Amino acid sequence: MNEYREIKAGIVGGSGYTGVELLRLLLQHPQVTVTALTSRSEAGRPVVELFPSLRQQLDLTYVSPNDTALTDCDVIFFATPNGVAMNMAPALLEKGIKIIDLAADFRLKDVRQWERWYKQPHACPELLNEAVYGLPEVNRKAISQARLVANPGCYPTAVQLGFLPLLKHGLVAPDSLIADAKSGASGAGRTLREDLLFSEVHGNFRAYGAGGHRHHPEISQGLAIVNDGKPVSLTFVPHLVPMVRGIHATLYARLKEEINHRENFKISGDFILQSIYEDMYKSECFVDVLPQGSHPETGSVLGSNFCRLSVLRPESSDQVIVLSVIDNLVKGAAGQAIQNMNIMSGFPEEMGLMGPPMYP
Amino acid sequence: MNEYREIKAGIVGGSGYTGVELLRLLLQHPQVTVTALTSRSEAGRPVVELFPSLRQQLDLTYVSPNDTALTDCDVIFFATPNGVAMNMAPALLEKGIKIIDLAADFRLKDVRQWERWYKQPHACPELLNEAVYGLPEVNRKAISQARLVANPGCYPTAVQLGFLPLLKHGLVAPDSLIADAKSGASGAGRTLREDLLFSEVHGNFRAYGAGGHRHHPEISQGLAIVNDGKPVSLTFVPHLVPMVRGIHATLYARLKEEINHRENFKISGDFILQSIYEDMYKSECFVDVLPQGSHPETGSVLGSNFCRLSVLRPESSDQVIVLSVIDNLVKGAAGQAIQNMNIMSGFPEEMGLMGPPMYP
Amino acid sequence: MNEYREIKAGIVGGSGYTGVELLRLLLQHPQVTVTALTSRSEAGRPVVELFPSLRQQLDLTYVSPNDTALTDCDVIFFATPNGVAMNMAPALLEKGIKIIDLAADFRLKDVRQWERWYKQPHACPELLNEAVYGLPEVNRKAISQARLVANPGCYPTAVQLGFLPLLKHGLVAPDSLIADAKSGASGAGRTLREDLLFSEVHGNFRAYGAGGHRHHPEISQGLAIVNDGKPVSLTFVPHLVPMVRGIHATLYARLKEEINHRENFKISGDFILQSIYEDMYKSECFVDVLPQGSHPETGSVLGSNFCRLSVLRPESSDQVIVLSVIDNLVKGAAGQAIQNMNIMSGFPEEMGLMGPPMYP
Amino acid sequence: MNEYREIKAGIVGGSGYTGVELLRLLLQHPQVTVTALTSRSEAGRPVVELFPSLRQQLDLTYVSPNDTALTDCDVIFFATPNGVAMNMAPALLEKGIKIIDLAADFRLKDVRQWERWYKQPHACPELLNEAVYGLPEVNRKAISQARLVANPGCYPTAVQLGFLPLLKHGLVAPDSLIADAKSGASGAGRTLREDLLFSEVHGNFRAYGAGGHRHHPEISQGLAIVNDGKPVSLTFVPHLVPMVRGIHATLYARLKEEINHRENFKISGDFILQSIYEDMYKSECFVDVLPQGSHPETGSVLGSNFCRLSVLRPESSDQVIVLSVIDNLVKGAAGQAIQNMNIMSGFPEEMGLMGPPMYP
């Protein structure tokens, strides 16, 4: 019906929240059919037994990861735990299949750092360099030519989109970055952990991993690139919010002294900051800079691929505050993966991704 | 691009939850453009100021209810408080505009009963008879020829779809019906009431209106029709669940003695009940009968127009239990209204309504 | 300081929600010191490592269940899975220790029924007859003389207290009882089950066990006793509410025809029902009959040992509706256990249990 | 029964969440009887009609604020909107009544700043100097001699207790303070605001007042005092968490260079920080420093007067992170007010306040 070809997609590890979200979104994509869905533990079971929400819409059964249906795909999404994609990627790439890994296997360029944080030897370090970090707002061109895309983590997406304009324009001290990030519980996946039980999370709020979190090196690596390759110093504290979906990153950075003392910044610093954000993202279909003085809420992006941002400087101080919200399962995972797939496949970037957020 | 014509839709009262849900769904409808959106209090404001969730998707500004944009529409949805549609309907109908009222103005056939429950005189009782009760699973044909459709209430939708097969097949005593219904807080709309504050609803559960609720006569009227026109006796208790969307109706009815004592029913009553439900709804795109022994959950229909049902008879007793779930804002309001619009406009009934539920 | 002696209490299985709730409440009891707290898996760990909420209030370390500290107690609470208490009870009773089992081991009098529902052979059926069912509002005298008390289940407590006055006065047909019950997630304990994860329960509502639930025979047994020993027919459907604490039972029963047609009942049936409830519970410190027309909410009993009830008859029909709320961890478990301990120990029944509910 | 006298307490403005929390806590206080409870709008109504949670525990009726029952009290709590206490305080003080204002009327010493933030003229600026800021951990002695105590705000309590040790020991740059604070919805009171409706808050997270919040000058004033009277520069961003009770403050401060480069700090900075916190609070009954590496959760203090803290320095950087949690209605309002009352009345500071938190 239109000018684009149809493609077949496979999902490895389709029994978790990221997998089912890929299914939900791909069902709405006009050019893609999911033809293979693997799960070692669920092979043979219809998807709708695990996810009744997809009844009457999907007639698909889990297969084992070495089923030939997989190698028949044009593109394969890995919605697996860390460490799975790196073992399967080389053989699949050789067959000409494009790969988008929603886990962390190809996110860090430095293999030693990867092995330190993920506590296992890397199975194919030679691919780390080739893999493209799939943040379209930064790497669009490289993604369009990639066969292997490392889909960013949820926190890294919200934090990087928030900090980018400040660093790109050299406005803030790169050693002053603080990301106070808050996530709904679906970010932890469908894992059986006592601290993820309803009775533990409901009506409760806490930080975790304040001493060190795997997303820290990923964010730092991304921000350093925008900072002309020079390292940044970032403090990152994630928190668990008693809600299912959504990330809210509250970002703090100190204006460089020379910037803050500029005559024009004293008078209209807020206005300048606002313009810089609006300019930077004006042609991005999924990044939405709110009017000055707004507070984006996670509820305004649920189920959608949008990142909504606002930037402000309280009472003419030298601190810039950026508020950045995404749906962790969409722009922070499955949606961004499909955005990458669109770019890699020559489809319009927003194809199949413009379903409006659900509110309330 | 396809065989269907494009139509213009108007929404009167677009500042509440039902209004914004109509917008969310109509944005995904291929044949409809919303060209008029009214709100007395918000006239002149862009929709996205009230609902930032629709930013970057909708460029629409509230107009006053007497704006000419409204009379230029093919179909008008009333997402207003009770009592508004009945005052505007006659003039609009005269102009050849089709009307779907999501409020209660045209739901009851008996004007005295309407006036008793809604505590005001009815402005156009002469239209009550013409108005078609918009439950497509019952009234599809009449809806297709209607100019005025009374969109069912949220509880009445969940309860009637659950009881229908039992009454239609004369299986249960019509004086034994009990509907224990539970709804998320969005059912009460965006009303400023102390008992709807977050701190009052969260972590709390209660019944309300146990002594009498406006949806009671509506349900009874609908069930009597299927019961060969003979009145039924229904006990109906609604409850408020600390969640935003979703209705769960737990329905109880006593098998008629002659049914329960039939030889085949003793042996395979559960199987017979299951078959009756599956048969009745097998060609309905939005009613999903779950496998025997299932418990439908509201989380499996969020954001979608599905009603999921299960039927069971515990331990061969004479009680039948039906579990019925819907999203109160979709199948219980905006989605069903669009389903009716599709039928009235000659579109495929499921057009624009097949976006999968959001889970988790 | 007062006339009562001090006693030592032990808790077997203190690492779950019922165990920690016993600790919270016993900390506020003037005559009791918890001297032994056992957990096979946590032996050697300070309680506050598992439950930081008790920091600065409790200096207690888990011991193994065969620690001698246990046999030094005056009374032992079993907050264990079903099947544990029955194995330890005989030896402890022989030592003169009183036992209150918060699990189900001694709740059913009929050993065959117990073994059918709990799917294991009973270890000491000879104690079933001696064990007193610990619903003080029914069995106060027997409890005061018991050495072994079977603490009622959470649903059975809310349901029985609601139905009792109707059955005791012979007002309703004993074959017409329906209990539509709703519970917060803490009722399922701290169990690692996928369907108890926050992301599964939040914003979701569902029934479970509609085909048969272990609390069914317990409720039926209790109601039959009040019904002059004649069996009742009960339909019982439990539901999971997205909240942590609280049970709301919505109870339905049909007035006997001869009652409903009595002249005085036609005129003032509601008033008669209200009086019957108020009379029955007027000297109960933990059962609170609300004014006519009220809807009790679970939020009004959180953290407390109260059961709040209301009774109504909608529009002079022959259905009576009773609404009954408790905190499942208090009146439905730990609080009622302490109430039983008070009765068994000669303490005032409400001692240590009058801390007001937390609201909001 | 003990050595302490009994006192009479009055509450002005007892129909909000702070008022009912004062009632809940004072009911558990052995030396206090609440003899007057005022509410202009509810005068004449029994408290339990508004707060059924207090049924069977409290037999008190709202009176008008000029009822003589009020002037008969020993101490009066103001749980009123800002601007009420300052109008009634002078006359009551003259009668020898002690006053604890839970609102903001006497929190700021600088009347111009007060009038700027609270947007009204101050009715008795002459009392600002006399009023003692009721943070017992800082001002215990002055509180013991005060007739007028300004009870701290909820955010200021959590933030100041967190920052105090760092500033007192001169460890961090006073111009580097960031407080990213998160609160449950009860902090906004029982106010009818659309953005506080359940359907708006549930499953949603957002910042608010990032450009300026009334608690900012209060915190800055308090921190400056500990900073040897020199002003500090603080960035403060409050957020709304979809839960009812609890505040979590995540605090950031930069170690002074001379501190961070000290030999001993390089090697054992974390240990030094931990010791400083433990030493500072070791004799405080309501401040609990958690073991190194802990993340306090709001769920561990619900219903209690505790503040739980942890301090850490991620990966030997120059940033110190402090995590501080309280129950906003207890240590952040009613509980701290009673703590102040205890100090002012010569009672043990923890009297009536040691009820353990409710968990889960």
- Mean pLDDT over the residues of chain A: 96
Largest sheet of chain A: 7 strands, mixed
Largest interface: A-D, 46 and 46 residues
- Unreliable spans of chain A: none
Total helices of chain A: the number is 12
CATH class of the largest domain in chain A: Alpha Beta
Beta strand count of chain A: 13
Rg from alpha-carbon coordinates of chain A: 20 Å
Strand content of chain A: 15-25%
Task: Give the ordered list of helices and strands of chain A.
Answer: EHEHHEHEHEHEHEHEHEEHHEEEH
Describe this protein's structure:
The structure is a homotetramer of 360-residue chains. Chain A has 360 residues and is an alpha/beta fold. The first copy, chain A, folds into 2 domains: 7-130, NAD(P)-binding Rossmann-like Domain (Rossmann fold), CATH 3.40.50; 155-328, Dihydrodipicolinate Reductase, domain 2, CATH 3.30.360.10. Chain A is 32% helix and 19% strand. In chain A, the strands form 2 sheets. Chain A has a 7-stranded mixed β-sheet with strand order 8-9-7-10-13-12-11. In chain A, helix 1 (17-26) crosses helix 12 (330-345), helix 6 (136-144) runs parallel beside helix 12 (330-345) and helix 7 runs parallel beside helix 9 (215-226). Chains in contact: A-B, A-C, A-D, B-C, B-D, C-D. At the A-D interface, strand 7, strand 8, strand 9, strand 10 and strand 13 of A face strand 7, strand 8, strand 9, strand 10 and strand 13 of D.
